[in-house]
Amino acid sequence: MGLLGKFLRFLLELGDCCKPTGGNSESLGPHGVSAATVGVSGLAHDLFNFETTSQVPEGLSQHVVSSKKAQANWYRKLVETWREAKPPPRTDEEAATLVIQTLKGHKKADVQGLLAFYGLPHPNTLVQVSAGVPTSLPQGVKFEFQTLPVDVKAIPDGDTVTVYVSTEDPRESSCVPSDVKTAAIQRSKARAKKNYTKADELHKKIIDAGYRVLNVQNQEILARKYRIRLRGIDSPESSMPYGKEAKQELVKLIEGKSLRVLVYGEDRYGRCVGDIYSNGIFAQEVMLKKGCAWHYTAYDQRSELARWEEEARLKRVGLWASSNPEKPWEWRKHRREAR
């Protein structure tokens, strides 16, 4: 099995993880009806098919201006580039970058049409992010922690997330309340005896104390709850224009990931104000560069955040596609005054 075949198999084994969120799976994608025809998995599928049949996908001609012969030439180039990529693309952004770089010099309408065919990001929305995380803690950081994988339901909007930290973490282990420890032990015993009513009562006591027992890879872990407010940015509220898109961008970035969080302090709502890194990617940088947030200058003066917002403004991406987007802090103020 070639590299493309192996990667296609890898994508199919991911199952639900490859399916776009929302919508009817029977109508996904411009040229098919399943998750295998959308985004990076769709492109991998069609490149694998081209490698074995020399046929370009049906329906592509409706999205591009060049002939079938030219399309076949693109796919030959893409197959070669994909083979040489180490590692191969695993996200829609990586796949879009590969297409753009491989077909550099081809007609703009063809490149954009090919991206649209697979639902891949438009060139203007792709961003280059800084590599790595700080090697030393930035000034003002009070503490840091590593989270357990983030649940999608814990992401209400584009600048807030609820996370959990294992109590086996050295910083946490010394401060777990004794009644929480006792309740966790008693809950485990109740479940072993299949007394689920008692176990649920004990878990409610644990939750009320700010903890939760999570099942991670078939292992039960007692974890502490933290609500995080991303420092230095303000995304549209969920009911504002572009609010849903901002939330979805943060979901794409952190869902299922174990995050590194640098905490600077606490806001008036009891949330930790911090910087979030997901697989080494600085979340606030992505949100600003993709036009999913404002730089929240009232609470953060970092020049790089101002620069990233300006980059998105100039490209008119995300919320900046609107000529005069309403600022979320002003929107909240108007809502308070209207009560």
UniProtKB/TrEMBL annotation:
Any single GO CC term annotated in Swiss-Prot or TrEMBL for this entry: cytoplasm
Source species, domain of life: Eukaryota
UniProt keyword annotation of Lipoprotein present: no
A molecular-function term among this protein's GO annotations: nucleic acid binding
Keywords carried by this UniProt record: Endonuclease, Hydrolase, Nuclease, Signal
Signal peptide from the UniProt entry: 1-17
Cited Pfam families: SNase (PF00565)
InterPro entries referenced in this protein's UniProt entry, alphabetically: SNase_OB-fold_sf, Staphylococal_nuclease_OB-fold, Thermonucl_AS
Chain ranges of the TNase-like domain: 146-322
Full protein name: PREDICTED: staphylococcal nuclease
Native source organism of the sequence: Prunus dulcis (Almond)
Lineage: Eukaryota, Viridiplantae, Streptophyta, Embryophyta, Tracheophyta
